[in-house]
Predict the 3D structure of the following.
Amino acid sequence: MSLVRLIERAIINFVPFFFNSYEKLSGEILRQKYPQWTVGSDIISLYQADGGLVDAAQGNSTHVQMARKHGAHILSDVSVIRLSKIAPDHMMVHTTRGVYHCKRVIICAGAWINNILGSVGVQIPVNVTQEQVTYYATPHVREFTKERFPVYIFHDRQYDVYGLPSHGNSGSKIGLDALGNPVTPSTRTYTPDKKREKLQDEFHSKYLPKAVGPIMYTKTCLYTMTLDRNFVIDTCARTGNKEVIVCCGAGHAYKFASVIGQVLSDLAMKEATEFNIKKFTMNRPAINDPFFKPSYIMGVEGSSNPDLSKL
């Protein structure tokens, strides 16, 4: 089965739950709809009119303000050292700014997840990589605004490319998904990978030539991916610590932040949720099978990170 057909089948399964419809466009129709693209007849696209982008900075700020409204205290520049359990429903969170007592604790620690969970006997197999996104100052600014250009994911045989139109005071954005080198929080750098920038330039030149322009800046970040690249949303009850709730976003959770927050709140307050999170528990092969083959590239089963030296 072709890659396009696999992706289309996945969309068909999910569209009824999230969207009204989608369109399958030939390369010619895509060029007519969005002339910024210079794709050939070998490229087929699946277009979702309801697709868009989330302003992460504004979203984070809104969530923090709403949390404060409901009585939350936000502590910045504080590191969690470990957890300890005093008694059922009595956890201690040891930090660089003292010890905090609570009935439940929710861990959403990204690349530091196992540093914390190890103190309650839990380790989640994850691959931490240093990723990056680049913003380009195209001279054709108007053609890459939100009104004229869509969010996209381009599924190549070797890697996935994703991009966003200009938003706020930034240029158009592009990134190569899950192509970074394995790192740890202490070994990661903030230095852009020039080889990935070159691959992005080549992609632009081939498929989006009007997006070509000077690089405004490249930002690095960390992906913390489970081996099947699915979320972990569960408690640590299997080690006798139901008080500890854990979430791993696997590098693509932000757009689901509101609903994931609701699920985690349910687990903390009611020890259950009405949402079906069976696929996200730790009771699955990607977490428990030591021979599980990693699958990181979207739309390609059993695909590990590509080797940049071969691209």
Notes: The helical segments are 3-18, 27-33, 56-69, 113-117, 194-207, 257-270, 285-288. The radius of gyration is 21 Å. The mean pLDDT is 90.
